Structures are given as C-alpha cells and as structure tokens.
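Figure-free illustration: sequence to structure, shown twice.
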Amino acid sequence: MKQILIKNAYLITMNGQREVYENGKLLIEDNKIKAVGNFDESIVSSGAEVYDAKGKILMPGLVNTHVHLSQQLGRGIADDVNLLTWLRERVWPYESSFDYEDSLISSTACCIELIRSGVTTFLESGGQYVDAMVEAVDKTGIRACLAKSVMDEGEGLPKAFDKTTQEELDVQEELYNKYNNTSNERVKIWFALRTIFNNSDELILKTKQLADKYKTGIHMHVAEIEDEVEFAKLRAGLTTVEHLNKLGVLDKNLLAVHTVWLTEREIELFRFYDVKVSHNPAAAMKVVLGFASVPEMLEKGIPVSIGTDGAPSNNRMDMMRDMYLTSLIHKGRTLNPEVVNAETVLEMATINGAKCALLEKEIGSLEVGKKADMIILNPNTIHSLPMHNPIGNIVYSMSSENIESTICDGKWLMKEKEILVLDEVELLEKVKNQAEKIRKKANINLTTNFKVIK
C-alpha cells in the first residue's frame, strides 16, 4: 500500500456540489483517492509521501477528447490551407509514410506534451499503428481511449490506407481483444470512424454493432465542414447527422467531434440520444471550419467537452489554451459575455470530458473511490497574479506554464516541472530527427513568402 498526502491546497473537487476547499487536502492510496477535503490524518500511514501544496491549486486532471497521436511529428506541415488540402495533400501523405517506430516516437512525444499541459486522460481519434500507441501510453503513464482510424472508401486515399470493410472490422475487434484494459486498465480500446467521406454504410453499421457488443465508444468526425454535409446529401439525400440517425448510430456511446454544421433539429437529436460532443476551438478556427453551437448544446444538457485535435491543425496540444479559446469565441459569436463562463469551461475540461470518455464513474472529479488523476497548478507567475477569482484565473489567465505537476493512476508523471517517466532530452532529439525523415519520405515541400538566406 502506497500513500501520497497532498495538503494545504486550494482544492477544486468538481464533485456534484462543485465543492472547493480553500485549504484542502487529499489522500491517495495506491491508484485511488482515499480521502478529500478536511479529514482526520490518522488514516495516513507513517510511510506516506507528504506534499505541501501551499499557495497552489489541486484539481482533477484535464480530459482531452480529441487527439491524433500519429500527427505529432507533423506540426507545421499544413499551415494556412483549407481542410481538404490539409488532409489529402499534406496529412495523408505524411501519415501513410509511417512505420511502427515513427508512430511510437510521435505518440510518445504527444503524450509528454499532454502531460505538460495538465492532461491525464485523452481520446485518440484513430491512427494506423495502435500497438505503438499502446506502448507509448504504457511508457508515459497517462490514461487513454485508443482507436484505429478506419476507412474503406473515398477520394484521395493513399494506397497504404486501401482496406476492405471486413479488414477494418477485423482489425478493430482484434485490437480490442488484445489491448483493452491493459496497462493497469489505463488503456481502453474504442472504435473509430474517420468521416462519412471515407466510411461506407456497412462499415458504419457494423462498427456500431461491435461497439455495442463490447460496450465501448465510437470516435467520429461529424459535420466538420459544409462540404461534408453537402457530400452526405448527395450520397444519401440526408445530412451527416440525419444519415447517422437513419442508420441508428446516434447513441450514448458516440463521440461526435467538431459538430460545426448542425441544425437545430440535429442538436435536439444529440440531446435525445445522449450523443457526446468534442469541441475543438483552435482547430475549428485555424482550418476555418466555423463556430459550433456550443452554448446551445450545453443549454440542452448535451455533454460537450474540449479537444485540441492534432498538431498539424492546432499546432499546440495545449488544453489550457483551448479552454481559454472555448470561452472567448462563444462570447464573441453570441455577443453575450455570460455564455460559457469559467466554471462551465472547467466542467467541459474535466467532468464532461470524463462523460465523453464513458469514464465518469472513474475520473473527472476528485472524489473518494475515483482514480487518482489530478494536477497541481502554481499560480505564482506574473501573468496569473493577483488571484481575486481563482476559477476565472485558471481559464482566463493561466497557461500550461502554470501546470507544475501531473499525477495519473496515483503516480507522479511530472513533478515540479520535471518529467519523471522518461528522458525528455533524448526524446526531443528523436522528435527532431524522425520528423525530418518522415517529411522527406512523404515528399512534403514547404515554402514561405519570406526570403530565406542559407
């Protein structure tokens, strides 16, 4: 039995009552939370590690609900282009040139950036080397819902992605049986449908059947761009969401990502079927997808969470930054300063994220019996002080620079800014070398309007 006592913290529980302790403490025992708030320290063992968090903030770890591990080494390869160019001319050539080692380095680097930005759980929307992703998650100690990106049709698919419907179904089931609940149950295997551009009705229907059979989730880009909605209308006479509804796919185990181009009726369908939503504000603005109806969905009780998307579409896997953007863009869109307030953003990044991961009974809040996934923020920086409103400061003032420590499954992954799970300097060298090799292999040549002198 191993215990860690964290004391003297400004403790944000995110429990049902949203209780906050100005001078709180928390006891971790093995990988679970044993006590929270004000409690008798007689339950603390004599050999427990004691961490004094005086002047710091203790809160649940952030849940990033849309990540592309395999895109981490592609940061900067697809700036300032539209989505279809981004996908077909940059990201697909890049991703299709990968091998296992490329995926492992990319996945590991992404996990470390997530840890540094306060993420303890993430949802991967699907790459090709899930086994490498599992290895990276196991090594770095983070919690993840992983999936293979499945595609059985569509324009512009690289030869490496040319798979039959049955091949894609078989590999998803094989991955689930091999890896689900591994790494001390930190790894969950989901199923992933890339987009309606690339998924036949048969693949969509049978993936849903598999997800229901194994009681796991489905991760899918939905109503991401207007062209997608128009494509769906041409193919089936219905919008993406209406078509998914007709197929019977709208359900509590579907995570719909982006959801920018929704009608009022489609939002109501999401509410009725308890569809989960991942809002990616930075990616939506950078690739010019549009503005999702987040306040409207939240008002209907739809679990809307926050995701960063991948490095080529956001460039920063920084949940703190995306929390800030989430609040600002919807105030601007609605011309209402009261929508998506700081408390709501914190809910989206924690307990709503846990609901979207289908893990709300295990993570998302600091409560007795839940997994010991949490972060410690140090507000003692010039851009964060004074702290008249701590909750507001977390969302509006702080950044990943303020994330001082990250704990997942009862273990320190980062402590006082030091990554403990691997040699970060060695990883950085691998990232630089491998990224250049992949870009050249994928034949991606980037230009600039500036005059570069060699």
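We now fold a second protein in the same way, so the two outputs can be compared directly.
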Amino acid sequence: MSARYQLSGTTAVEISAGIESGIRTGALSPGAPLPPVRALAADLGVSPATVARAYQELRQRGLLVTAGRHGTRVRPRPPVAARRSALRPPPLPGARDLSRGEPDRRLLPPLGPHLAALAADSGPSVSYSDAGVLPELAEAARARLDADGVPAGELTITGGALDGIERLLGAHLRPGDAVAMEDPGWANLLDLVAALGLRPIGVPVDDEGPMVAGVAAALAAGARALVVTSRAQNPTGSAISAERAEALRALLAGRRDLLLIEDDHAAELARVPLHPLAGATASWAFLRSVSKPFGPDLRLAVLAGDETTVARVAGRTRVGAGWVSTVLQRLVLALWSDPAVDELVRRAAQSYEQRRDGLLTALAEHGLRAHGRSGINVWLPVADETSAVTALRDAGWAVAPGALYRIAAAPAVRVTVSSLHTDDLAPLAAALAHAANPTPPPGFPT
C-alpha cells in the first residue's frame, strides 16, 4: 500500500469508504496490498470485527480480493471508475503493444457508407411504444444462428455479450451463488462475477474447450451457472471440438438446476466450426456479439435461449435501459446484408489465423508449446509472469500478464496477434523464448 495514503475511520462504513476513495483516486493501485485485519484495527483503534466487515463489504462488491498467504489486495481491475492517471500506464516509448486483445482496426469494415445510407433513409423517429427488437434483425439473426445449429426460436438483443451475461446471471442467481467459469478465462467476466458478489469456480481449459472432469467437479461443488466460450476463447484461443461438445452435452443433459451460458463472441471471425451446447440444459442462453468482427463500438449481441430465460432478460431490459438503439440495429442489419462486408470479415479472419499460426510455429522452433487454436490471442505458459513481462518490456514488447485471467491456472502471458506483421514473428518469438526461459545468472566462481 502506498505510504502516502493512510486509511482512517472508526466504523466499517467509514473504513470501506476510505479504501474505495483510495482506489478511485489511484492512491491504492490495482493489486496493492492492504494491512492485515488486526494490524489495521490496532492502528485505527477499532475492533478487528469492524475492519473485517469493511473488507468483507468491499470483497462482496468486487473491489478487494483475498489472495491466501498474500493477504487482502485491491483487485487487478476493481469495478469503480478511477481517475485517468490511475489507469494502466502505456507501454514504453517505441514498444509494440500486444496486450490489449483488440481486433486490427485496419481490418474492420468501414461504417461510413452504411451510416450515410441510414441517414438518407432515416424515416420517422421511433416511439417508446414501438421500440424493441426489429423484426427484420431478429429474422436475420435466426437465419445466421440456424445455419450454425443453434436453436433460435426465442431471441432478444442486449448491449454486447458482457451486458447479456450480466443480465442472465442477475436474473437467475443471487450473491453468494457459485458460477463455473473457464480458468484461465475472460478477465472482464472474472471482474463481473466479483462485482455481482458471485463465487467463481474455475474449470480447467485445454485446446478443445472446458475439460469435462472440471465441469463435473464444479457441478458437484454446487455451481448454479456455467459460462463457456464456444471458440476463440480469451485468453487461450481454445475452441470446443465436436467430441468435447458431445461429452459436455451428455454431462449436462436435462439439468434443471443449472444455467448454461455460451459466448460466441468471435462469431464470423472464427475459422473453426461451431459445436454448440445450446439446449443441453433446461435453462440456457447462446450469445453472439458483433463487436469483434464489425467493430468494438457496435455494442450489440444476439441472445437466444429457452423461453423463460429470454423472457427474463427481455423483461429486465424493458424496465431498465428499455431497448438497444434501433439505429444500431439497422446498422448491424445493413452490415450483415452487405456481401462486401462479408468478404472483408472473411479476409480478416484469414489474416488473424495466419498471424496466430505463424507465431505458434515460430515459438515451436524455440521448443515452446503455446496455445491458440482460434481467435486473436496466443497463450504462452511461463515460469514467472512478472519476470517474463518485464523481460519483454525491456525488449520492446508489451504483453498481458496471465494473472488477469487466472483463478488457479498456471502462470502464462497473453499475446494479441492482431497487429503483428510477418516480419515481427521471428524477433517476437525469440523475445518470448528468452522471457519464458531466461538465462540463469552465472554462479559464484570457485
């Protein structure tokens, strides 16, 4: 904890408010340790129970995390808006940033022509009573899902995949309930589960998706929901194979006490077949976002599911945000309907595959086995994340530490390949090899 920031307060409310203020201003940075309960209680002249209540309230809101023998720390990405100065510092000048997990902007379809066409044919404004899911968008979405074997009789729209997952979890679970989730898995989802006061249970992942034994163990431990990524899993690039899907469907068949959520965020960018689990359980939802293929600013996802689950999400949306902008819906429909956009997305997917496979091959030449069956990321196991990230930074490469994505999985780093060029692959692989297996310092002379 920063020596410049002193905690204060005589009640649990005051202590928790002071910690939250420190996080918000950046005085308590992500990952910063907090004093042990008894030590802070002695400093403040309060009972240990008072400090424990303050810490517990912040843990339930996802601001703090207890890390075993490492004590209580600020979460790596706590759910509270911080000053810009407290956000992640930029890479060193001249460094290549491979840490962000974003698509290559140069490969995104241009929105200008379609926006201009919408402006020329805007029509009358939509009224409150008429707003909702556009029938023509729903029809197009059903056709696209049906082509991939996803039953889409019931369907609604959310403001992106994570918005859909939040609404699903909020409609089915309560604070303290357990959620089975991939480990390593999507950092935003880990943060969301913490912010909702839910309890994560890690499910190990291999190149073919969540491992069956891990899912079975999570179910035995009382998981009320299971969140899986269909393909282009973040951060490992795994994709559920036909054999894994069959085994998981057999394990989940007929479960009435489990909400199954599938996230197909890569959608059209994925160069591997989709093997959905949709319908394996009584309560299920399948989400497909448009952000990765068509642009991060397009906050829209299609959500298909059983009648009750879709009705809960649609009903909660109606009493909250109301609906996803029909202007945005019309723009997405225009993009889906344009063959030239389809070709751009196809070329982007092919480009990402070439960059990803090229890096995996280059790493293999150094004796390193990394993971990246699909998507825009490569996951490289390392002995020590801190030293690996530091070594890469010194070599001019910024990558993401695996700790952002792990519950109990082994250390690794995530490399986003979307901005790489062919000439980058050899020097990057060499830098990654050095970072993963650093040369030990020479011993003392004898």
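Summary for the second example: The radius of gyration is 23 Å.
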